[in-house]
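Exercise: predict the fold of this chain.
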Amino acid sequence: MNTLIISTILFTLTSFYFFLNRKKFGTDFPWLVSFITVISYLVMTMNINVGTDPTAMLWTRWVGYAMSCTLLTASMVEIFGITGKQKTVALVSTSLIMLTGVLAAIATSPLFLILFFTLGMVPFISLISIFKSQATSQNRFVLNYLYYGWMVFPVIFLLSPETFRIVPSLTLILSAYLIADFFTKIVFYIHTQKLK
């Protein structure tokens, strides 16, 4: 529970920071991504407070990811200068990754969990391929954020109490999600601002 409160406060503060500095960042995407993340953490907090199984609420974060990660992809597309059909494929691939994520999270059996998880790798590979084909020495770090940063989330998911319970501590899993969110959203936008 404390992890969710810390997460909510952190992303509320960064939402305000990015909102107040949107001219500096040249886009509204950073504050929108942080704001969506605040809502996601609040929904998880709300679900824990009503006494439901704490792990049963984790799937709700995928709804927030669907929006925030699509905005993150839109930011990456701008940095890479990707347009036209490739831009559309990148944005739709991101949505498909999140859709298969939510389906894996609410799967009624391990077979469906593995099936949806595996299906989610197809649009992820598509997304990586699009950015890899456009990578330069100046934007390669963005590809690293995408590849290494986004790969952490499915690993946490598979380790969590909502799937295979390899790490049964909900607090540890929520802390891991917070750290991953911090680097892939806040640090990402601070780092990419230097490109502008």
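Check your answer against the key: The first helix runs from residue 2 to 20.
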